[in-house]
Amino acid sequence: MSLLIVGSLAYDSIETPYEKVEDALGGSSSYISLASSYFTKPIEIVGVVGDDFKSEHLQLFKDKNIGLEGVQIIEGGKTFRWGGKYHHDFNQRDTIYTDLNVFADFNPVIPESCKESEYVMLGNIDPALQLSVLDQVRNSKFVVCDTMNLWIDIKKDDLLKVLKRIDVIIVNDSEAKLLTSEPNLIKAAKLIKEMGPKIVIIKKGEHGALLFAEDKIFSAPALPMEVVFDPTGAGDTFAGGFIGYLHRTKNHSFENLKRAVVYGSTLASFCVEHFSTRGIENLDNEKIKNRFNQFVELARFESDEQF
Amino acid sequence: MSLLIVGSLAYDSIETPYEKVEDALGGSSSYISLASSYFTKPIEIVGVVGDDFKSEHLQLFKDKNIGLEGVQIIEGGKTFRWGGKYHHDFNQRDTIYTDLNVFADFNPVIPESCKESEYVMLGNIDPALQLSVLDQVRNSKFVVCDTMNLWIDIKKDDLLKVLKRIDVIIVNDSEAKLLTSEPNLIKAAKLIKEMGPKIVIIKKGEHGALLFAEDKIFSAPALPMEVVFDPTGAGDTFAGGFIGYLHRTKNHSFENLKRAVVYGSTLASFCVEHFSTRGIENLDNEKIKNRFNQFVELARFESDEQF
Predict the structure, then answer these.
(1) B230: closest CA among B56, B20, B29?
(2) Considering only CB atoms, which chain A residues are within 8 Å of B255?
(3) How far apart are CA A246 and CA A264, in angstroms?
């Protein structure tokens, strides 16, 4: 069965200290689906765009075996647009504008052919919509959910309902602290587990990620990067690599979850090397394997017989 | 030959959200020497105290085979005292007072028997004094240096002279950025290497540490800790575990440097579990090996044949 991805499709205008782009492909579904496409198929996106959504981008998805049956194209409507600006150290991002456009009325309708999807990726959208997706799918065995500080602030009740019905939550460190009012990430992860998900992933940006499952912890390194060109979509790309690898392997052991986290980090490392989705449009198995092996080398150490 | 350690001996008054202690053993030399004592001997400290320095603390060092020939005890003088307070998340520390006392006139005199020491640990003291130590030792093959933001701010010229004459510099992330005016740690490490040391270690607190040597990078994890009781001395303890392990093994290969970093992190993880030096006063090989293996488990992942 297909990997079902629900999220946004958007055009982003991004300014970094290096460059500026207008109307570049963005949205959580774009990053998630492109990243997961290197690991598995079939993939189906559910989302909404206006009739200004470019055919070259529809073609990009089709070329990667990403199904668009669930993508509504609203005649006369305008695609979701976001504008953001990064500052010198990339740790701070200002939203310049958010034009929801057709996304304002987004109501995900899961195509009949996707309702049996065993793997579901709930991209970062209103938790009320995430709940609607969960109501429509049957037999989903493995649901991964992303969210953001906005929903923790204004839709916490719905988010807590979502958390009870999913397998994996992916948050960053500040979201984990906000969700639990707990500054210690280890304690925060425990509190989040008590809210529902058996598996908690806390992303720490340049410091890697922590995976909590089966009462074990895995500390994944981040690839040291001298130049981050554009961090937009890195979190979505991480999620795409993670669930794409799990959909391929159908193995939820802790050992395999660790690999999935590193594949997520691997794809995210390609994402930030270029603007928009460009860094994850032209990958292949060899490039991904080589980059994965850089993560292996970076973190590998062995005990010795000398102590 | 002995491992030579030069730094401060102090009494600290520390307040954390959990507890408060007065006049607890502190100072960089205390932490460094205790940590390294589990790996190697002989160890010699060079430092200065007043005649108020307690005999039980002199005995503690002697019990760990830490030589005190280079420790001047100033009759009628008072030992260096520092008071600090940690806030809820331990990321911020306020210095309440700094009474240098006999440390104000500290002029390290290396005993004749230590001048041939091949391994020298320059604890965090005025770089002018670190230079004086380097002028006194002969044939030192491996010099590790710690420093702090204060010296980068007010004694940068002397610090730059020190950097030209050492093998390893240990700094934390904010010090690396301050020293190089470069927010990217990978670029900062390269810039620091150009200042002299072949090996650069950047500590990132709860996010682990980065080791840069031989154009390679190692990302060491930090042990996830639910309770940090007192972070005072964690950096010195890290340095002590690091140089103690290297003094034991006399092997400076990248593989062994990686292990030394993890042994440093291992000792630091014990340090923060208790106030003052208490967490590193009663360790043994088995406790250290078990904790080291927790680091191995935390960071271990393997590539697979499924991709």
Answers:
(1) B20
(2) 301-302
(3) 10
Name, in order, each residue with C-beta under 8 angstroms of B306's C-beta and a sequence gap of 6 or more. Answer: A248, A249
Q: How many other C-beta atoms are found inside a 10 Å radius of the C-beta of residue B54?
A: 13
- A187–B226 CB contact, under 8 Å: yes
CA atoms of A56 and A68, how far apart (whole Å):
14
**Residue A4 φ then ψ, to 5°:** -95, 125
Does the beta-carbon distance from A207 to B208 stay under 8 Å? yes
Per-residue pLDDT of chain A (307 residues), as tens digits, is: 899 999 999 999 999 988 899 999 999 999 999 999 999 999 999 999 999 999 999 999 999 999 999 999 999 999 999 999 998 777 678 999 999 999 999 999 999 999 999 999 999 999 999 999 999 999 888 999 999 999 999 999 999 999 999 999 999 999 999 999 999 999 999 999 999 999 999 999 999 999 999 999 999 999 999 988 899 999 999 999 999 999 999 999 999 999 999 999 999 999 999 999 999 999 999 999 999 999 999 999 998 877 8
The answer to whether A167 touches A199, Cβ cutoff 8 Å, is yes
Helix (H, G, I), strand (E, B) or coil at B134: helix
CA nearest neighbour of B234 among B189, B270, B192, B209: B270
Is A230 in contact with A86 (CB distance < 8 Å)? yes
Residues B5 and B45: beta-carbon distance below 8 Å? yes
Buried/exposed B121-143: b ≥16 CB within 10 Å, e otherwise:
bbbbbbbebbbbbbebbeebebb
Rounded to two decimals, the ipTM of the complex is 0.93
Q: Could you tell me if B214 lies within 8 Å of chain A, comparing CB atoms?
A: no
**Domains, in order of start, for chain A:** 3-299 (3.40.1190.20)
Q: Does the pTM of the predicted model rise above 0.90? A: yes
B201 sits in which H/E element: strand B199-203
In chain B, what residues touch A304 (CB-CB under 8 Å)? 249, 256, 259
CB contacts < 8 A, A to B, total 115
Q: Which residues in chain B have their CB less than 8 angstroms from residue A206's CB?
A: 185
Contacts of B157 (CB under 8 A, 6+ apart): none
Coil/strand/helix, residue B85: strand
